[in-house]
Amino acid sequence: NYKACGESLEELFIAIKEKNYEQYQKSYNILEDIMAKSKIYNKRTRLLIRLQEIAPTWATAIKKRDGIHGSSLLPENIQLAWKWRQLSNQINRIDSYDPNQIQKELRKINEALMDNAQRLANEKAWYHNIKNKTSEQTQAIEGWRQTIRQIGKGTGKNAPILQQKARDLMPLCQTAIPVWIMSLNRVAENFDPQKNKFDVVIIDEASQADILGLAAIYLGKKVIVVGDDQQVSPESVGIKNEEIQALIAQYLDGIPNKHLFNEKTSVYDLAKMSGFKPLMLREHFRCLPEIIEFSNRLSYNGKIKPLRDTSGVGIKPSVISIRVANASRWEKVNKLEAEYIAALVCACAEDEAYRGKTIGVISLLGNEQALEIDKLLQTNLEPKEYEERRIQCGKASQFQGDERDVIFLSMVAGPNEKGGPLRLLSEDGNNDLTRKRYNVAASRAKDQMWVVYSLNPEIDLKPDDIRLRLIKHAMNPQLMKNEEKVKKTESEFEKEVMKRLLNQGYQVIPQWEVGAYRIDMVVEDGERRLALECDGEKWHTQDELPNDLKRQAILERLGWKFIRIRGSAFYRNPEKTMQWVFEELVSYGIKPNFNLTETAANTDDDCTNEIIERIKRRTEKIIREWRGEPDLKDGMVETKNNLQRQEEITYDIKILDNIKNNKKIDEKDIPRKMVFKAIAIDEIHDPNDNQEKVVKKELQKPLFDFRKK
Asked: What whole-number distance in Å separates Cα of residue 594 and Cα of residue 507?
C-alpha cells in the first residue's frame, strides 16, 4: 500500500526498482524534507481539531486551503477578523428574531389582560354591592328615587317637604352606594353635612363653580379640586356687590384673603390661594392636534400634549377659515355671517361625510348672534335632525365642560364703518376674560373647527388683536420645518434615519412627547400616525430594555403603533433597513407625500378637498333657496376659489360715489382689473341711466384686444 502514502514514496520505490540513482536521490530528499516537517504538521492537526470545535467552517477552509488559506503568506489581522465574525454572528442571531411580530403578540396579550381586568373589576364590584346590601338599604334607595321623581322641577308646593324627606333617606343610601355623582345644586339639596361624610370629594369644573361650591368641600375628609383657571370663571349676573361685601364683613372676620370670597372667585381660585400647589394634567384627548394648538399657545405655553388618535377621523382638514364678504355687524348681530353659518350647518347635516356628527355654534361676541343662528336652524332643520345632532348655539361660557364633533365659531365683528382697523381686542383685556373665552371656544371641537369671520384680517385688525391671532391660526396652523426637525434629534443614528424619511417624502415629527414619555419620531400621513423608535447604543441599552418595553406597552394602550429600527441593522446595511421601514409604513397605511404643504385648508386659497368644496357649493345653494333667488347655472358666477359664498364687485370708491351722486364719469377713470358677477351690474343703479351705461360699456370690453399691435 505504499502507493496510498503519496506520490513521493511511490516515486522512491520506482527508482529502487529501476535502479535509477538520480530519481532515487530526488525522491529521498523530498521524503526527508517531509519528515522534517512532521512536528509542524502534527501541531497544525491539533490546532485544526481545536478550531473545528469552535469554528468548523473556518477550520475546514484552512484544512482544504481554500482561498487565502492556500497561500504561503499568513492572512493579516486574524484577531480582528475573528472578533468581527463573532460580532457578526451575534448580530445575525439577534436579527433572526422579528421584534415587530413579538410586539404584535405582546399587544394581543395586553389587550386580553386589560379586557379581563375590566370584566373582573365590574363583576366583583356588582357582586360586593349585591352581597352586602340589606333590605333596609334597598328600601331607602328606592324611596329616595321615588321621592326625587315626585320633586320634579322643585316648583310644587310639596317640594320643600319632599326635599327634606330625600335628605333624611340619604345617609342610609350612602352606606349602600359609596360613589355619588351629581351637580353642585343637587349636593346642597340631598346631603346633610352633619350626617353625610365622604372619604374623598372630587369637584370637577371647579373653575366654573362659585363660592357656593364650598358646601361640597365640607362633605369630604379629603378634597380633589379639578379645574382650569385659564377657562371662563363664574359670571356675576344680577348679584349686588354691596351685599356680598356686607356678608364678608359680617361672617368672615379673621379669614385670610376674605375680600376674595366674592362672586368673581371660583372654587378653583380658592383652592389655589389656600396654598395647594396644582398638578397640571398635560395630556389632551379631546381635540385633534391642529385644533388644540391655538389654545395650547394662547393659554398653556405649549405644555399641552395632544394624544388624540386621528386615524379614525374622516372629515378634514381639522381647521377651516371662511371670510363672509360684504357682511357687517349691527349691534351684536352680523346677519350675513349668521345666515352663512346656519347654511353651513344645514349643508353639513345633509352630507354623508358628517353622518352622526354632533354640531355646535359659538358666538365670540355676546349671545345675540347665537340666538340669530339658532332661530335660522330651528326654522330650516327638521326637529329630529336638530335633536340628533345635539345642536347648541351659545357663547363660550355655555360650552365650558362640553364638546361637539364639529364647532362653528362666529367672529361677529364687521369692518369699521369709519375706516381703519377696529379697536384692539387684547388677550389680557377685561381681567383676562377675553383670553379665557377664546380658549374655551377654540377647544370645544373634537374633529373639526370652522372659523367664520367678516373682516379683512390684513386691514381691519391690529397686529396684537386676539381675533387676528385666531384667524391666522385657522388659515395656517404652524408646523415645524424639516431643518428644525432634524436639529431636534438626539443622536446621529436618529438624524440619519430622519433625513432618509424626509428625503423619501414622509412627514416626520421628532421627539414626540406623550405625558412623561418621549417617542424618537412620529411619522404622519393625513390622519394616520406611527411611532418609530431608533434602538441605538446610547438610549436603548440592554439594561434599559425592561423600562423601554414598559414605556411602549403604556403607549400602545393609548393606541400607538410602533416600528423599531436596530442601530446594528441600520449601519450594516442602511438601504436594506430603510427599505424594510418604508414597506412597514406602507403596511400601516402611511405613504410619502412630497406635495404636502403642512397647512390647514384655507378658504382664501384653492382647496382641493372634495368634501369641503361640496359643502361650500351646497351652502351657497341653500342661501339662494332661503332668499328665494333663482338657482344659478355653473359658470354664471366666477369666483376666486369656489369657497366663498359671494365675491365683491371691485370698483374704485371714486367711481361708486359718482354713480350714486349722478356725477359725470370719464371712461379713463374706470378701473380695468375687477372681479364681478354678471348678474350684479343691474343691482348697482338704474339700467336706463347714462352713467350706468358707461360702466357697462367698459365692463363689456375685453381686458386685452388681441387685434391691436
From this structure: 9
The pLDDT confidence band at residue 65, using thresholds 50, 70 and 90, is confident
Angle at 76 between CA 72 and CA 82, to 5 degrees: 115
Residue 321: the pLDDT is 92
Of 121-125, 371-375, 461-465, 631-635, give the lowest mean pLDDT range.
631-635
Report CA 631 to chain centroid distance, whole Å: 40
Residues in contact with 129: Cβ distance below 8 Å, sequence separation at least 6, in sequence order: 176, 177
Report the sign of the C-alpha dihedral through residues 242, 248, 249, 251, in that order: positive
- pLDDT 10s digits, 590-607: 887 644 433 333 433 344
Q: Tell me which residue of 413, 409, 382, 194 sits closest to 319, measured CA to CA.
A: 409
In this prediction, residues 686-706 reach a mean pLDDT of 42
Residue range 379-424, pLDDT digits in tens: 999 999 999 999 999 999 899 889 999 999 999 999 988 888 999 9
C-alpha cell at 326: 360684504
How high is the pLDDT of residue 343? 95
- Return the C-alpha cell found at 437: 373665552
Q: What is the DSSP letter of 211?
A: G
**Site of grid cell 345635539:** 390
Cα–Cα distance for residue pair 198/702, rounded to 1 Å = 82
pLDDT tops 90 at residue 281: no
Q: Match 328665494 to its residue by C-alpha cell.
A: 628
pLDDT tens-place string over residues 185-225:
888 888 888 888 899 999 998 888 888 888 888 899 999 99
CB 636 within 8 A of CB 662: no
Cell numbers standing for residue 397: 361660557
Q: How far apart are CA 549 and CA 103, in angstroms?
A: 9
User: Cβ neighbours of residue 393 under 8 Å, at least 6 residues apart?
Assistant: 360, 361, 362, 363, 370, 371, 373, 374, 377
Q: Which residues pair with 203 in a beta bridge?
A: 225
**H/E run at residue 388:** helix 383-388
pLDDT for 429? 78
- Measure the CA–CA gap between 598 and 92, rounded to whole angstroms: 40
Distance CA 129, CA 176 (A): 7
The closest alpha carbon to 415, from 380, 453, 450, belongs to: 453
Residue type, 45: T
- The pairing of strands 445-453 and 305-306 is unpaired
Q: 222 phi and psi, to 5 degrees? A: -130, 150
Using pLDDT thresholds of 50, 70 and 90, give the confidence band for residue 452.
very high
- Residue 161 DSSP symbol: H
Q: β-pairing, 445-453 with 404-410?
A: parallel
Query: Rounded to an integer, what distance in angstroms lies between the CA atom of residue 31 and that of residue 436?
Result: 103
Is the pTM of the predicted complex or chain greater than 0.90?
no
Residues whose CB is less than 8 angstroms from the CB of residue 685 and which lie 6 or more positions away in sequence, other chains included: 659, 660, 691, 692
Mean pLDDT of 636-664: 40
**Contacts of residue 492, Cβ cutoff 8 Å, sequence gap at least 6:** none
Beta strands in 302-400 (DSSP E): 305-306, 319-323, 359-363, 392-395
Distances in Å between the Cα of 108 and the Cα atoms of 98, 262, 518, 564 are 16, 54, 23, 18
Which residues, including other chains, have CB under 8 Å from residue 582's CB and lie 6 or more apart?
Answer: 504
Pick the closest to residue 465 from 453, 448, 450 (CA basis).
453
Q: What is the CA radius of gyration of the chain?
A: 40
Q: Confidence band (pLDDT; 50, 70, 90) for 650?
A: very low
Q: What is the average pLDDT score of the chain?
A: 80
